[in-house]
Amino acid sequence: MSLELRHVAPLLLCVGASIVLAPLAVADPPAIPEPGSESAAATIRDLDAAGYDVSLQYENGVPNAGLSTCTVTDINTQGTAGSQGIAYVTINCSK
After folding, report:
1. Which residues in the chain come in under a pLDDT of 70?
2. Which end of the chain is more exposed for a tag (fewer CB within 10 A), N or C?
3. How far is CA 73 from CA 25, 34, 43, 44, 91, in A?
């Protein structure tokens, strides 16, 4: 029981076309700002827009001024809360 070429050729053509036309299912990771590249307020805003739940960690206590005067020293996006990613942001504010 051998397959004839007329039965195999359409099958190969369909398989090849499905591979070529299949969309790539590679998702780009959300853009994470570099620590210190912008104010803490802008970094928090960018991480929130990327879909992260942001948790703040202060190096020098809670600041007396706004977060726009503080700098980010570290960003850790390893955690999750259910399906949402958590970004732990370490902030340094001058006293």
Report:
1. 1-30, 61, 63, 80-82, 95
2. N
3. 34, 9, 11, 13, 6
